Recover the amino acids of this structure.
């Protein structure tokens, strides 16, 4: 979506008919609207929101210009409208929204007229597009307008493209940005498809007739139970996750309060404790990895733990076999063959090679000769086969024990280090507790930390329970599928399951692949943009909910820093959509988005304005900015070269040269 | 489950699901309604001669 034009008629302070054309030139993609405070900058963003999505963000919901309203007589009707012309998928559309206000009452109140308008003005909404001849206008059916607009720029995501300075600070700190990111990158299509298809597979599985097979029936019953249990555990896990987030943020809040302390000792101790906590955190991760490594060394078949643990018994057997007297142990024979195989060939009458095995012939004598040295009658062959197999089995397991011991030593070493660091942490806490004010905050922080750990333990155990449920569900499904495949009455359903399961696997894999690209690219781009916008050194990570976090410290952020972070986030998101990073031969997911901002730099200092202005025109396809004169002075240094159109928003003046609040025009 | 699946049918089902889900981003039909639609589509495509 690229916005070509905004037209307004008697919309708030914009009296009469007014029009702004925006720059659509890709090289000069910025349009600036410069105005002082209260001139009507915010009204521009709100005009877009009202016209496109019906959102009315004004405290006084009457949209009609107040001068026009004051002059209305009872029964008079006045229109207020906004029209937005935009280009989407190479078609030019115009959406127009009209409110028809009716004057119900006009009462004189001490020389002033109080005019009452109808509370629910008649609304007329139209959307039309220009045919390729550039003349013919085709209207879109009234019932499809809202759906059509959602296709162009979904209402849920509009917040990321039409926003004011006060709103931008909060964007990157929202609790869950996953929905917005997935929506903007169109990953929601794949995600919804997998969710729906997984239910479809289950529904097909449910329709398998298992009557007559006790095992399949049992698996079907258990499947229902496990699925219900899984849903319940997922709910509990989500609650535990919320608790974790809550207590983590509380701990960060108390930490930030301690950082503000005026007492040097508290400051110092807090700093030292932060350092120890960071080391402790890394040691705990190391411990987790070492434990996983040890479990893996035990359970992964390639490390042959089973052979090591079987070694004493096998060696004992080998020793016993050596003791057998009178056994010719070195008789060579065909490995893994027993007398039964020769008996079978003789009975069949011909060898594997096709030679006839008639009694008395040479081939017959030869195979019978071989038979005499084969097990079970010739024990030596059996012993030989056993020995060679056992030796092969044991090969490479000699150092299993020492390797395992090394791993255990590592774990003990890390546990000791964690113990030491925990003690150090406690000492630093004691130093903080010496100060009376800080004492309470530190106690609260510790309490929040303990509650966080408790919630995390719950969370981890619930995640493990979900894994257990998944395994059980998978086993039941396999049992049902196996039955369906073998039973003729279920052949049709079995085919549906096969197709839907295959498509489901493909969807999951595609989604995961694309989601990984988005996460990776977002992290790279946000870091890159943040580095260019922010003068300090800070590294940024994108968490599992796409929230932007600093990887190094967790101190309190100023509004300015929050705004810079949000700009970096939005610029990165928009640039990813613009660069169509997920497009391939099968899927076209890239989109074109405008950025419409009101006083975007109200919380940002001049250095950051400068930096942000270098990035924005390059990342978005179109930038429309209503900006204060004082901010424009800084922004223009870098933005001027990208400005395609520029307007001044000015209040009209009366005969005495005084500004009129209710009458504004673009110049 | 079954290995001998018709690749053409698989591709058609994939494409149809993506089309239906893209449409539903704005239509916002309920989950059960979408599941039913997808289920019927799969049955129809699989049984198509």
């Amino acid at each position: 979506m690229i916005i070509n034009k905004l037209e307004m008629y008697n919309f708030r302070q914009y009296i009469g008919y007014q029009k702004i054309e925006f720059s659509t030139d890709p090289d000069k993609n910025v349009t600036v609207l410069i105005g002082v405070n209260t001139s009507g900058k915010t009204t521009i963003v709100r005009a877009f929101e009202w016209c496109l999505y019906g959102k009315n963000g004004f405290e006084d919901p009457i949209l009609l210009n107040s001068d026009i309203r004051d002059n209305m007589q009872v029964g008079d009707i006045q229109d207020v409208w906004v029209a937005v012309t935009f280009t989407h998928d190479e078609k030019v559309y115009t959406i127009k929204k009209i409110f028809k206000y009716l004057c119900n009452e006009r009462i004189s109140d001490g020389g002033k007229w109080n005019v009452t308008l109808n509370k629910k003005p008649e609304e007329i909404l139209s959307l039309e597009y220009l045919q390729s001849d550039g003349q013919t206008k085709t209207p879109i059916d009234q019932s499809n307008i809202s759906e059509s607009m959602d296709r162009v720029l979904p209402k849920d995501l509009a917040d990321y493209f039409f926003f004011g300075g006060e709103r931008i600070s909060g964007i990157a700190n929202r609790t869950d940005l996953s929905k917005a990111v997935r929506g903007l990158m169109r990953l929601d299509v794949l995600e919804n498809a997998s969710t729906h298809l997984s239910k479809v597979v289950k529904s097909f599985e449910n329709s398998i007739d298992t009557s007559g097979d006790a095992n399949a029936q049992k698996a079907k019953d258990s499947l229902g139970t496990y699925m219900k249990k899984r849903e319940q555990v997922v709910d509990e896990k989500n609650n535990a996750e919320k608790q974790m987030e809550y207590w983590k943020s509380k701990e960060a809040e108390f930490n930030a309060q301690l950082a503000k302390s005026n007492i040097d000792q508290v400051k110092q101790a807090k700093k030292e404790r932060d350092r120890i906590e960071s080391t402790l955190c890394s040691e705990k991760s190391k411990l987790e990895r070492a434990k996983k490594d040890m479990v893996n060394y035990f359970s992964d078949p390639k490390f042959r733990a089973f052979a090591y643990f079987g070694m004493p018994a096998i060696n004992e057997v080998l020793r016993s076999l050596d003791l057998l007297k009178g056994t010719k142990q070195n008789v060579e024979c065909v490995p893994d063959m027993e007398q039964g195989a020769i008996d079978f060939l003789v009975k069949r009458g011909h060898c594997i090679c096709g030679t006839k095995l008639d009694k008395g012939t040479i081939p017959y004598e030869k195979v019978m000769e071989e038979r005499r040295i084969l097990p079970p009658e010739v024990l030596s062959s059996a012993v030989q086969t056993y020995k060679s197999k056992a030796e092969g089995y044991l090969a490479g397991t000699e150092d299993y024990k020492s390797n395992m011991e090394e791993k255990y030593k590592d774990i003990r070493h890390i546990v000791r280090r964690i113990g030491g660091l925990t003690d150090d942490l406690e000492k630093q806490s004691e130093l903080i507790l010496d100060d009376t004010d800080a004492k309470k905050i530190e106690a609260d922080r510790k309490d929040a930390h303990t509650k966080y750990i408790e919630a995390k333990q719950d969370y981890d155990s619930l995640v493990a329970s979900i894994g257990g449920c998944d395994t059980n569900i998978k086993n039941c499904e396999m049992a049902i599928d196996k039955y369906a495949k073998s039973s003729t009455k279920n052949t049709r359903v079995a085919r549906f399951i096969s197709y839907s399961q295959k498509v489901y696997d493909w969807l999951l894999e595609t989604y995961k692949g694309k989601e990984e690209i988005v996460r990776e690219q977002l992290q790279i781009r946000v870091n890159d943009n943040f580095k260019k916008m922010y003068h300090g050194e800070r590294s940024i990570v994108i968490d599992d909910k796409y929230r932007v976090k600093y990887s190094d410290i967790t101190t309190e952020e100023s509004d300015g820093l929050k705004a810079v972070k949000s700009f970096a986030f939005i610029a990165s998101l928009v640039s990813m959509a613009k660069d169509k990073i997920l497009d391939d031969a099968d899927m076209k997911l890239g989109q074109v988005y405008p950025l419409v901002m009101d006083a975007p730099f109200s919380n940002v200092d001049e250095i950051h304005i400068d930096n942000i202005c270098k990035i924005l025109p390059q990342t978005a396809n179109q930038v429309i900015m209503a900006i204060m004169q004082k901010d424009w002075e800084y922004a223009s240094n870098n933005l001027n070269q990208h400005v395609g159109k520029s307007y001044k928003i000015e209040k009209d003046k009366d005969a005495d040269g005084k500004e009129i609040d209710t009458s504004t025009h673009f110049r | 489950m079954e290995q001998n699946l018709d690749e053409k049918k698989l591709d058609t089902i994939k494409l149809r699901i993506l089309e239906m889900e893209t449409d539903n981003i704005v239509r916002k039909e309920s989950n059960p309604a979408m599941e039913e639609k997808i289920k019927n589509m799969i049955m129809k495509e699989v049984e198509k001669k």
In short: Chain B touches chain A at residues 1-2, 5, 9-10, 13-14, 17-18, 20-22, 24-27, 31, 34-35, 38-39, 42-43, 45-46 (CB under 8 Å).
